[in-house]
Amino acid sequence: QMPGTARHDREMAIQAKKNLSKTTDPVERLRLQCLARGSAGIKGLGRVFRIMDDDNSRTLDFKEFVKGLNDYAMMIDKEEAQEIFRIFDKDGSGTIDFDEFLVTLRPPMSKARKEIIMQAFRKLDKTGDGVITIEDLRGVYNAKHHPKYQNGDWTEDQVFRAFLDNFDSPYDKDGKVTTEEFMNYYAGVSASIDTDVYFIIMMKNAWKL
């Protein structure tokens, strides 16, 4: 876990559960259900959808959409699912683009927050190819401080891999983290932090920016 984020994560999940009982907006309810699972909740739903998308069209029809929500154990009735689907199916084609869906589901973030997240991403992305890999981390992240490295349980690569797993997705861990995955993760963290100032300080401290 990232320095300082485990606590935020718990606080955010508790807050999301509380807010769930108050909101009637179906998209917000879905967002809060994801966030109630922690920062990686929205990203996790994205992976479920990706697995359902057999033909790699990056779109889902209503049946796939409902199956994805059920597979991810979202408490949602058919009417509510239909309402959400209609909101996202802007052109009435009967399918939704799930990248667009996930971006909309992600808690909104100010420009200042997005910028500091991108700053951290660029610092980690040593090779500058838009993807963070184990190779990138060798130059930035010191594995030698990790307790499992110190007691000989893990190699340096295993420490890097575990670190990437925070941001990588739970269903299809490829040891690579894209800008999108990094953003999704921090959108979750961001949801638990009220002020931009505090979020930016946390990011600067965590990543020595």
TrEMBL record:
<dbReference type="GO" id="GO:0005509">
    <property type="term" value="F:calcium ion binding"/>
</dbReference>
<dbReference type="InterPro" id="IPR011992">
    <property type="entry name" value="EF-hand-dom_pair"/>
</dbReference>
<dbReference type="InterPro" id="IPR051581">
    <property type="entry name" value="Ca-bind"/>
</dbReference>
<feature type="domain" description="EF-hand">
    <location>
        <begin position="76"/>
        <end position="111"/>
    </location>
</feature>
<keyword id="KW-0106">Calcium</keyword>
<feature type="domain" description="EF-hand">
    <location>
        <begin position="112"/>
        <end position="147"/>
    </location>
</feature>
<dbReference type="InterPro" id="IPR002048">
    <property type="entry name" value="EF_hand_dom"/>
</dbReference>
<keyword id="KW-0479">Metal-binding</keyword>
<protein>
    <submittedName>
        <fullName>CAPSL protein</fullName>
    </submittedName>
</protein>
<dbReference type="Pfam" id="PF13499">
    <property type="entry name" value="EF-hand_7"/>
</dbReference>
<dbReference type="InterPro" id="IPR018247">
    <property type="entry name" value="EF_Hand_1_Ca_BS"/>
</dbReference>
<keyword id="KW-0677">Repeat</keyword>
<feature type="domain" description="EF-hand">
    <location>
        <begin position="40"/>
        <end position="75"/>
    </location>
</feature>
